[in-house]
Design brief:
This protein has three helices and four strands, in the order H-E-E-H-H-E-E. The protein has about 140 residues and is mainly α. The protein has two domains: about 80 residues; about 45 residues. It has a two-stranded antiparallel ribbon with strand order 1-2. Helix 1 runs antiparallel to helix 2.
């Protein structure tokens, strides 16, 4: 659904850019040289500024359209993984993250080292035999 918003913004940017380009062309006029009078008496429509504005807004529109397309692909992937009507819960409670971290630490502390591992006496982490110093700074016991 959010990809449609980006594509709508892209379409609006093209329209707004066209209008602003024409307005700037009239308001920021440039002096024009008159060959008949050899002078700069009157001003002319600023075509260069109009085209620069159009190009700028078109580039912005292309960027937003690209974002919309990328988001649409991600939404399709989500729909194929989770099903058409299901939503992914991205607002997981903080307590769940804390519980997962504590469980991870407890499982590492409770693990018994195998023959090619050693357990740090200071923090209880399991290290490979080729590691001489634990991550906490404790040296491998002899």
């Amino acid at each position: 659904m959010k990809s449609k918003h980006f594509k709508t913004v892209a379409g609006l940017l093209v329209f707004i850019g066209a209008v602003i380009g024409i307005i700037l062309g009239f308001t920021c006029e440039v002096p024009s040289f008159s060959a008949l009078y050899d002078s700069y008496d009157h001003n002319a429509f600023n075509v260069g500024l109009m085209f620069e504005t159009w190009i700028f807004f078109d580039l912005l529109a292309i960027f937003f359209a690209w974002l919309g397309s990328a988001l649409e692909k991600l939404e399709n992937i989500e729909r194929s993984i989770c099903g058409e009507n299901s939503t992914v819960n991205t607002q997981k409670p903080v307590n769940d993250y804390i519980k997962a971290a504590v469980n991870s630490i407890q499982s590492k502390l409770e693990k018994v080292p195998s023959e090619n591992e050693w357990k740090c006496p200071k923090c209880g982490a399991i290290n490979q035999n080729y590691v001489g110093t634990c991550g906490c700074g404790e040296v491998k016991p002899k």
